[in-house]
Amino acid sequence: MSAVSPNQSSDLAWLLKGLAQEVPVIRGSVLLSADGMMKAAHGLDRANSEYLAALASGLFSMARSASTKFDGSADVRQVVAELGSSQLFISWAGFNSVLAVLAEGNADPAVVGYEMARLIKAVRPFLDTAARPPAASGDRSR
């Protein structure tokens, strides 16, 4: 399993920029760890990128819970939300990683989904996020 080191994370923004160039209806995108930590972003300011990362993490987690309950596995390929004037796409992007894309309301969901899947498939090993080490347990009763 390959994982992105901290110095590689910022370099991943060029992948998201390339996705937006390929699909001009994309307003912004964020690559995040499954627990909501932003790894790379394009098209959004920092505050909105972090907000989208946290939101995508929560929605993806709820979809995994639904899949476990109703489908017998935790596999989720994509979550899509149609908003008033936008569309939100959230996809599994590799070990412990998620890709969230915010597109214009008139975007063709098939095109956005296809291009997201194509990007993920092409660079999947570089999108993986290492698991966090367990927190040190200490006796806090003293």
Q: Could you outline the blueprint of secondary structure elements for this entry?
A:
Elements: H1 6-9, H2 13-22, E1 26-33, E2 38-42, H3 46-71, E3 78-82, E4 86-94, E5 97-104, H4 109-127
Antiparallel strand pairs: 1-2, 1-5, 3-4, 4-5
Q: What string gives the helices and strands in order?
A: HHEEHEEEH
**Mean pLDDT, all residues:** 86
Main sheet: strands, sense, barrel: 5 strands, antiparallel
| Strand composition percent | 15-25%
Radius of gyration: 16 Å
Domain Roadblock/LAMTOR2: 13-103
Pfam families: Robl_LC7 (PF03259)
Protein name: Roadblock/LC7 domain-containing protein
InterPro entries: Mycobact_SerProt_Inhib_Rv3364c (IPR053141), Roadblock/LAMTOR2_dom (IPR004942)
Explain this structure:
By secondary structure, this protein is α+β, with helices and mostly antiparallel strands. It has a single domain (6-127), classed as 2-Layer Sandwich (Beta-Lactamase), CATH 3.30.450.30. It contains 4 helices and 5 strands. A 5-stranded antiparallel β-sheet has the order 2-1-5-4-3, with helices on both faces. A hairpin with a 3-residue loop joins strand 3 (78-82) and strand 4 (86-94). The longest helix has 26 residues, at 46-71. The chain starts with 5 loop residues before the first helix and ends in a 15-residue tail after the last helix. Residues 1-9 have low confidence and may be disordered. It comes from Actinoallomurus vinaceus. Residues 13-103 form the Roadblock/LAMTOR2 domain. This is Roadblock/LC7 domain-containing protein.
